[in-house]
């Protein structure tokens, strides 16, 4: 706890944000739990209910690939109604105000994008579970297509035409971090939007600098409206 009470914490956070050149949010599972998506490590979380499937097991076994997809579709049935929550909306307002150039996240649920942050400005260090890719040729596959093939084959995970395995676009244990996302995260971490602030040259490459140029430079944003609202998520029943 960084402050003795919530109001002090909110005031302190607002002060920090107002006095910062830029804020770069880094989010994890906690921001999505109030939207109905359980985290992984908490009691009752996903890993308390089932062991994760390591990448080498996925690659080595058709049964593991079948199991991975069984879990994914079960998750879809449970969580596909999730909508951005207060935290997502607060960060989107920072982004819209030109204060946050991007969001770096460990989450795979696509809720930052759905909250209004351009996909190009959401750096997903652990990938995204709302679509799939071929591990052989990197072709993209949409989940409804995979599910149709999976169900038509009585629960057998489909493969790509190239022979590669199709996996959600997420990072598993034992799987390398995505190089592109990691490379995109670094320059966004180095500098703020104020002209003349200390930046690596690579940070001026295509990315947040161009994407923030069209946004208003206002730094006012109503943090309290997100922390005091009684409705955490606009989740359909
Ligand atoms: Zn392929």
Task: Label this structure with key terms.
three-stranded antiparallel beta sheet, 237 residues, alpha/beta, SIR2/SIRT2 'Small Domain', 6 strands, elongated, three-stranded parallel beta sheet, binds zinc ion, single chain
Account of the 3D structure:
The protein has helices at 6-18, 30-33, 46-49, 55-60, 62-79, 86-96, 111-114, 143-152, 179-188, 208-213, 223-227, and strands at residues 26-27, 103-105, 122-124, 127-134, 140-142, 166-170. The radius of gyration is 20 Å and the shape is elongated. The strands form two sheets. Strands 1-2-3 form a three-stranded parallel β-sheet, with helices on one face. The chain has one domain (14-227): SIR2/SIRT2 'Small Domain'. With 237 residues, the protein is an alpha/beta fold. Residues 193-230 have low confidence and may be disordered. A hairpin with a 5-residue loop joins strand 4 (127-134) and strand 5. The protein is built from eleven helices and six strands.
What is the fold's blueprint, element by element?
Layout: H1 6-18, E1 26-27, H2 30-33, H3 46-49, H4 55-60, H5 62-79, H6 86-96, E2 103-105, H7 111-114, E3 122-124, E4 127-134, E5 140-142, H8 143-152, E6 166-170, H9 179-188, H10 208-213, H11 223-227
Parallel strand pairs: 1-2, 2-3
Antiparallel strand pairs: 4-5, 4-6
The protein binds zinc ion.
Q: What is the assembly state of the chains in this entry?
A: single chain
Alpha-beta content class = alpha/beta
Alpha carbon gap, first and last residue: 33 Å
CATH superfamily: SIR2/SIRT2 'Small Domain'
CATH class placement: Alpha Beta
In CATH, the topology is named: SIR2/SIRT2 'Small Domain'
Overall pLDDT level: 80
